[in-house]
Write a structure and sequence with these properties.
Layout: E1 2-3, E2 10-11, H1 25-29, E3 36-41, E4 46-53, E5 59-64, E6 73-78, E7 83-88, E8 93-98, H2 117-122, H3 128-137, E9 146-151, E10 157-163, E11 166-172, E12 176-179, H4 182-190, H5 197-206, E13 215-222, E14 227-231, E15 240-243, H6 244-248, E16 253-256, H7 260-263, E17 269-270, H8 279-282, H9 291-305, H10 316-324, H11 326-335, E18 339-350, E19 353-362, E20 365-373, E21 379-389
Antiparallel strand pairs: 1-2, 3-4, 3-12, 4-13, 5-6, 5-16, 6-7, 7-8, 8-9, 9-10, 10-11, 13-14, 14-15, 16-17, 18-19, 19-20, 20-21
């Protein structure tokens, strides 16, 4: 799911309170375990699998080429551009399961990173041990609501999360997993099946979720070859096979998962702004020709902090989901500190709806907040496209 918000902690659109205000999809918003992840290995092969469970049907896979000191990566997630899972060119993969509630306070000695900490981890880790070292040194807010599984091509893996306010790491070099259908999954893993795509697909289908947060896509990675297996319709057999090296050779691009079978035959779609590294740092102010709209958004944020959400500010459909999590939303917003400023950095029209993006400064964090308005100036979507904790922020 997301992680910050994001739909499976990150799952996720993890965040999706106040449109993923903290961007912990699966991890922050889900009240119960969401998503299922597992690795199958026999010491020679290592395959990683995931079911992504969330309410958002706008799913994507995107490819970020290598940069200075950063490995090339494939990421899977939603239209907020916040990676819920991924694979890098060194054969390291990750994904999240949300629904854990743990005490987790930032150590002042921990470094804060720009954007999605998990993306920063993946693009700099060549092994599971590198990933563990990253999380010992860098602050990951999602551990208050989610746990991550990281694996590499040797078959090594680690479940990383929080317990009793401390980082908990469970290493292994065997087939393992956890998530939504945990009892069923553990039964299947008791006598681990041969690590093949077919066996992984059978297990994924056995763990599909339905209801308000159904499985939106399933995926698998061969951690040695870099092959990616995307089950765009989890309820049916069959998948789209991609290769990480081949896709990265095309440059930065993405596919809409529901339309991937058509899109892979066409020219690659260039990365959207919210899929690019360090998106927040690239945001620049633009002339604000609708100051009344800006005042409206400021008022809505202030009302949310005060716990005074107003139903009339939102579309009926969006309000249904938002109102269920109002108390948690208020708590999360208070952690950000007082609202300092909001600055318009983007405005466009898509599908007949108006989109606005603001650089939003709080005392403890900077968010790149994205709003969509309907014809009656009601919010149809509100989410954080990126965020950065300030150096003196503690949770």
């Amino acid at each position: 799911m997301p992680v910050d918000a994001g739909p499976c902690p990150l799952k996720g659109s993890a965040l999706s309170r106040l449109g993923s205000v903290l961007i912990l999809l699966c991890s922050v918003a889900a009240p119960a375990l969401a998503c299922t992840i597992f690795v199958l290995t026999d010491g020679t092969r290592a395959l990683f699998f995931n079911n992504e469970d969330w309410s958002n049907a706008r799913t994507r896979i995107w490819f970020a080429p290598a940069g200075a000191g950063r490995y090339g990566c494939a990421y899977v997630g939603f239209d907020d551009g916040w990676a819920q899972g991924g694979l890098n060119t060194q054969g390291v993969a990750f994904d999240w399961v949300a629904g854990f509630v743990e005490e987790w306070s930032a150590d002042p000695a921990m470094k804060k990173v720009p954007g999605n900490p998990t993306e920063r981890m993946l693009e700099t880790s060549a092994t599971v041990e590198d990933a563990i070292a990253f999380y010992r040194q860098h602050w990951e807010p999602s551990f208050s609501r989610a746990r991550i599984l990281v694996a590499d091509g040797t078959g090594a893996s680690a479940v990383i999360g929080a317990e009793g306010g401390k980082l908990r790491v469970e290493r292994a070099k065997k087939s393992r997993g956890f998530g939504y259908c945990d009892p069923r999954l553990q039964k299947m893993l008791a006598s681990p099946p041969e690590p093949t795509v077919r066996n992984g697909a059978i297990m994924l289908r056995a763990c599909l979720q339905s209801g308000e947060t159904p499985t939106r896509y399933s995926n698998g990675y061969d951690l040695r070859s870099g092959d990616i297996f995307l089950f765009d319709n989890p309820e049916r057999e069959g998948y789209v096979k991609l290769n990480l090296a081949v896709e990265l050779a095309k440059g930065g691009h993405y596919y809409d998962i529901p339309r991937i079978r058509q899109q892979i035959t066409q020219s690659p779609l260039p990365l959207l702004q919210n899929m690019k590294r360090f998106f927040l740092a690239q945001a620049r102010p633009i002339p604000d020709k609708e100051p009344g709209i800006t005042r409206q958004f400021r008022g809505i944020l202030q009302a949310a902090v005060a716990g005074a959400l107003r139903e009339d500010d939102y579309t009926t459909e969006y309000w249904k989901g938002l109102s269920r999590n109002r108390q948690e939303l208020q708590t999360d917003l208070k952690r950000l500190g007082g609202l300092v400023s909001i600055t318009l950095v983007g405005r466009w029209v898509e599908g007949g709806q108006r989109h606005y993006r603001y650089r939003t400064e709080f005392q403890n964090a900077t968010l790149l907040q994205h709003y969509v308005l309907d014809e009656r100036n009601r919010i149809a979507l509100m989410q954080s496209d990126d965020f950065e904790l300030k150096s003196d922020t503690h949770r």
